[in-house]
Write a structure and sequence with these properties.
Largest sheet: 2 strands, antiparallel
Strand order of the largest sheet: 1-2
Mean pLDDT: 83
Order of helices and strands: HEEHHHHHHHHHHHHHHHHHHH
Length: about 400
């Protein structure tokens, strides 16, 4: 409808202009020295309009032609940037999926654009590091366009991770020292430094680094968890035979660190070897009470036997809470035997034998009955022990 109305208005305007022009007798005269040019006003108006629009379109075309090279350059640059973005995206996808060939292809496609940035090389280096191709990762990071980009701190961090994976811990430290002061406060940097210090055997410095990241989520991952166990193992070795260092190490251990099973094992073994069994019990017993675990019970067992008198009440209480635990039943029997409570030890070993018959338990019961001056019972258990030994010697 709008087009129809516009067409009617255009026709009406054309009719009106034609009518006015038809009845217009005006003329235009132009004098050129001795010559004179006469033409109608209508013709002059038409010529003026044609010249105006001709001049306008001519200037516009000239200006457009002047901008054409810049627009062409912009067009080709945008095409290259699009190709680079696609190559980087393909590289990230290859990094996520572990597609090493795809990551290498993405780097080559990025290089073809001529616009590749340090980000392109960082993605490729991370992919190589993830696939344990450490030499390739190092060679990529050493390229000029990777090392001279805007993300220099990221390059140094990746180089430190490569050195860490190769076991060159001092080199990893050197790489971290080249980073900016702001970057040194990052959690990932502190984590890599902690792992490097652990590899170098600088246990106290490594523990300080661990505690700097202890409040972050990174301290709970498996790598940090394993590193903490190694740190305490090294600290315990250093403290052997040094009572003051042992006391200081135990006193400064944080509750969150004592949740690490390797830390508990190292401290318990250190205290037991130093004749401080009661201190080892004080460390282990709260954890067993709140979170009973068989691996923790294995650590507690030799310490409890060594300090049987102090451990007996707790072992009895723990057995009441977990009466069906075979390992705990054997521990209770061992502690009672150490305290010469023959009746309790025998009763618990017999209960354990009824659940899990074995030559080991039969031999223990034979010795216990001998110590309890019950030779008849001792002979019976010797017979059961012989039966187990005969069965074990039979060919499969």
């Amino acid at each position: 409808m709008k087009r129809f109305v516009s067409l009617l208005l255009l026709i009406a305007a054309a009719v009106i202009i034609t009518t006015i022009a038809h009845d217009n007798p005006a003329k235009v005269t132009i004098f050129l020295t001795e010559h004179r040019i006469d033409f109608s006003l209508n013709f002059a108006i038409v010529v003026f309009i044609v010249l105006f629009f001709g001049f306008y379109f001519g200037v516009s075309a000239l200006r457009a032609s002047g901008q054409l090279p810049a627009k062409l350059r912009q067009y080709w640059k945008e095409r290259k940037q699009t190709a680079l973005l696609k190559a980087n995206t393909d590289g990230v996808i290859a990094l996520i999926t572990g597609d090493e060939s795809g990551a290498d292809r993405a780097l080559k496609n990025a290089a073809k654009t001529g616009l590749e940035t340090d980000l392109t090389y960082l993605i490729r280096a991370m992919s190589a590091l993830q696939s344990d191709d450490l030499d390739l990762a190092e060679s990529i990071l050493n390229r000029e366009k990777a090392s001279n980009g805007q993300n220099r701190d990221a390059v140094w961090l990746l180089k430190a991770k490569v050195a860490l994976a190769k076991g060159t811990y001092a080199q990893a430290q050197d790489m971290l020292d080249k980073m900016s002061p702001d970057a040194l406060r990052l959690i990932q940097v502190k984590k890599v430094r902690m792992l490097a210090l652990t590899g170098l055997g600088e246990w106290k410095a490594a523990l300080e680094q661990y505690r700097l990241i202890a409040d972050s989520r990174h301290s709970s991952n498996s790598e940090c968890h394993e590193a903490l166990g190694k740190i305490y193992q090294g600290l315990c070795k250093q403290a052997q035979g040094k009572p003051l260092e042992i006391d200081n190490l135990v006193a400064t251990a944080k509750p969150a660190e004592l949740k690490n099973i390797q830390v508990l094992r190292s401290l318990a073994q250190l205290l037991a070897s130093a004749g401080m069994g009661q201190a080892a019990l004080q460390i282990l017993e709260p954890h067993l009470l709140t979170n009973f675990r068989t691996d923790l019970l294995e650590i507690y067992h030799p310490v409890a036997v060594q300090a049987a008198r102090e451990a007996l009440p707790f072992v009895e209480r723990l057995l009441e809470l977990n009466p069906e635990e075979n390992g705990l039943l054997e521990l209770a029997a061992d502690v009672c035997e150490q305290e010469q409570l023959w009746g309790k030890a025998i009763a618990r070993f017999e209960k354990l034998y009824s659940k899990v018959p074995s030559a080991h338990i039969a031999a223990r019961l034979e010795k216990l009955y001998q110590r309890a001056n019950q030779p008849e019972k001792a002979r019976q258990w010797q017979g059961k022990l012989n039966q187990h030994l005969v069965v074990s010697r039979q060919p499969a």
